[in-house]
Amino acid sequence: MIIKRLLSFIWPQTTTVSSDYSGVLELTVVNGKKMLDSKNANYSFGSLQRILERGLREIELKDVSSVVLLGLGGGSLITSLRERFNYSGKIYAVDIDSVVIDIAKKEFNIQESEHLHIFNADAYDYVKAFSTTTDLIIVDLFIDTKVPTKFYSEDFCCELSRILSPKGQMIFNLGMDDSGAKERQQVITYFKSNPNFKCTILEKIEGTNVVMIVETIPHQTK
Q1: Which UniProt keywords apply (predicted)?
Q2: For the chain, how big is the Rg over CA atoms in Å?
Q3: Do residues 55 and 173 touch, judged by C-beta distance below 8 A?
Q4: β partners of residue 120
Q5: E strand or H helix at 4, and its extent?
Q6: pTM (2 decimals)?
Q7: 166: burial class by Cβ within 10 Å (0-12, 13-18, 19+)?
Q8: pLDDT at res. 141
Q9: Which stretches of 120-169 are DSSP H helices?
Q10: Neighbours of 221 (CB within 10 A)
Q11: 43, 46, 125, 141: which has the fewest Cβ within 10 Å?
């Protein structure tokens, strides 16, 4: 592994892993840094991490006691939350792909603990079964470059809004700018038309992605 890391400063070192859900995944070490990619997109520890960190800069993490992360990938956002944003609360991470979860654990040292729980499950089913609320939801659900259609649905949006706490916030990676515009707009319209939420749309992050930030509006008491 040390030799491979040293060689990566001369040329990228790549190994491939096959997944029934994600197709062929690539683990690439470049200049000593390891990344996880699908055929056409970065999954972890590259541009995707920077995209989601841009969203995290819009979030008041001091008020967050629990995070639901839909789409674990290689776990780069967990690293971001812990190391760059100093978040020490509970994280519930979900991924449908057991191969990806295994990569996160073995290649990126993402380990379960008292404050990190990892679930191998469909995010849609997980949210529907979620029986409490959370202060932050991060939605990052891709198969290669596409967000599966069901995660743009009104039903899914309704379930997301249900599990947000009264002070809840959400980061929703809505996909790449050149695809899924109609479906993406359905999600934006759902939350923008709901008086309980304030929405901010971040366009063309890293030149590609649209990210929606949702904040729950506190109820005014008379």
Answers
A1: Polyamine biosynthesis
A2: 17
A3: yes
A4: 95
A5: helix 2-7
A6: 0.89
A7: exposed
A8: 94
A9: 123-129, 154-163
A10: 4
A11: 125
